[in-house]
Amino acid sequence: MTQTPFSQAETAAEKRLFIKTYGCQMNVYDSERMADVLRPLGYATTDDAAEADFVILNTCHIREKAAEKIYSELGKLREMRDERRQAGRDMTIAVAGCVAQAEGEEIMRRQPAVDIVVGPQAYHQLPELLTRTARARGERIGADFAPDDKFDALPVARGTTGPTAFLTVQEGCDKFCTFCVVPYTRGAEWSRPLHAVLEEARQLAGRGVREVTLLGQNVNAYDGERADGKKATLAELAYALADIPGLDRIRYTTSHPNDMSDDLIAAHADLDALMPYLHLPVQAGSDRILRLMNRKHGRQKYLDLIARIRAARPDMALSGDFIVGFPGETDREFEETLDLVRQVRYASAFAFMYSPRPGTPAAGMGRQVEPEVARERLQRLIALVSEQQVAFNQAQVGRTLNVLFERPGRHPERRQAIGRSPYLQSVHVDDADHLIGRIVPVQILSGRQNSLHGHLISQQKAA
Questions:
Q1: Same domain, 169 and 202
Q2: In terms of domains, do 236 and 284 share one?
Q3: What is the C-alpha to C-alpha distance for residues 379 and 383, in angstroms, rounded to an integer?
Q4: Which of 83, 343, 427, 430 is deepest in the core (most CB within 10 A)?
């Protein structure tokens, strides 16, 4: 979870907004947009909840006990609000995001300190809900599924700062994996119209954004409406984005193997702006477990897809998601997952121990794997993917990579700056703090598990 950073330019505003963001990149985008819709009401952001007039917890429902963590946080906020009231000030508390969508009524019942509950498709209603709450009347819960209404209501201008930005293009999921709550908390698949995405991207480029990451629960299922009424694919969107002046890099996440179309694979070969990094979750290496998960793809289909992608873009770095200890998973089936990881050779991967999500089909399946067995499998899988990540990073040593510098590093005395390689690796470079917002060639000197270190090519020539 993160405290989402926003611009502090509006220091003259009388009211302060604090947003705590849990979970995925889409929640980070949503938190930024919440700040956008509240900015006209005079809210500037703060990183101190105790100083905030309005506190929003933007929640994620993917992990086990997510709601309990929120209730713990709400207890602390209630104490802060009581202290503020004793000092003659007040605090409005809101719960947003997927936990709000799934458990809205329960949140209001269990924690009366909460003033507003708003789902991920209704946060554009925050100004109205906030006004109603201030007047102590009206409905306090907004949790409907109407993404088109939401995006139509959001301000065109965004408060984004820095050279990178998230851009939501698709929401919801129709896949109904048996372990996943997203179809129930985010609704059916829906794509923003092509013109709306391009307009927001142009606005971002005008603010100095050089790289956008397109977001969606199934982003490669994007089928936004074109001006002629036909549907555009994610590949078409990528080509259109690549034509926007100043927008030099395009990424997207998260993808489903079944939606990795031929034209999207071809776009990776054709477009320099489409970065050679792909997050393509498989979840397991056993066909039987994949069927139980309702993934609708098999092991060999996934491996064949990886081969086609690498044929189109040989330097493609791959990332994935894995769940170990799914109900009924045997030792042999887990070994099949390890074997798949060895064949694919991931640049990075995320591994999780299965945890039942209430209301999902998998939660009611028999043969739940013992926690100690699942933990041992998780440790083995993490060790393997960590080994592959280190190997991938160390393979960059001696290469020259174009790095987009994003922010100052932890060593200002060395004028350090941190950027991202085309493969999404964090790159640390000294004497580069004047290059933030620029894409610069860097020679890689060393590679660790989570980052690279390099120096500017100009320094090498000067030496």
A1: yes
A2: no
A3: 6
A4: 427
The one-character DSSP state at 317 is: E
pTM beyond 0.90: no
16: Cα within 13 Å, side-chain hemisphere: 14
Q: Which of 395, 412, 441 is the last residue of a domain?
A: 395
Same domain, 455 and 344: no
* Contact assessment for residue 445 and residue 454, using Cβ atoms and an 8 Å cutoff: yes
| CATH, residue 176 | 3.30.750.210
Helices first, then strands: H and E counts in the chain: 14, 20
Are 270 and 167 members of one domain? yes
Which residue range forms the structural domain that includes residue 410? Answer: 400-462
pLDDT value, residue 118: 83
Same domain, 139 and 27: yes
Q: State the Cα–Cα distance between residues 217 and 193, nearest whole angstrom.
A: 16
**Each residue of 379-404: pLDDT tens digit?**
999 999 999 999 999 999 999 999 99
Report which of 64, 1, 8 is spatially closest to residue 27, judged by C-alpha positions: 1
Place of tokens 């060639």: 441
**Per-residue pLDDT at 384:** 97
Secondary structure letter of residue 24 according to DSSP = S
Contact 369, 395 (CB under 8 A): no
Contact assessment for residue 361 and residue 178, using Cβ atoms and an 8 Å cutoff: yes
Q: Residue 150 domain-assigned?
A: no
Mark the ranges of the chain whose per-residue pLDDT is less than 50.
1-13, 137-141, 143, 145, 460-463
Strand partners, 407: 418
377 in Cβ contact with 354 (< 8 Å): no
Domain count of the fold of the chain:
4
185: CB partners within 8 A, 6+ apart:
61, 98, 101, 102, 119, 120
* Span between the terminal Cα atoms of the chain, in Å: 43
Sheet containing 211-215: which strands, arranged edge to edge?
164-168, 211-215, 249-253
Task: Give yes or no for a contact between 400 and 451, defined as CB atoms under 8 angstroms apart.
Answer: no
Residue pair 94/57 in contact (Cβ under 8 Å)? The answer is yes
Specify whether 264 is located in the same domain as 344: no
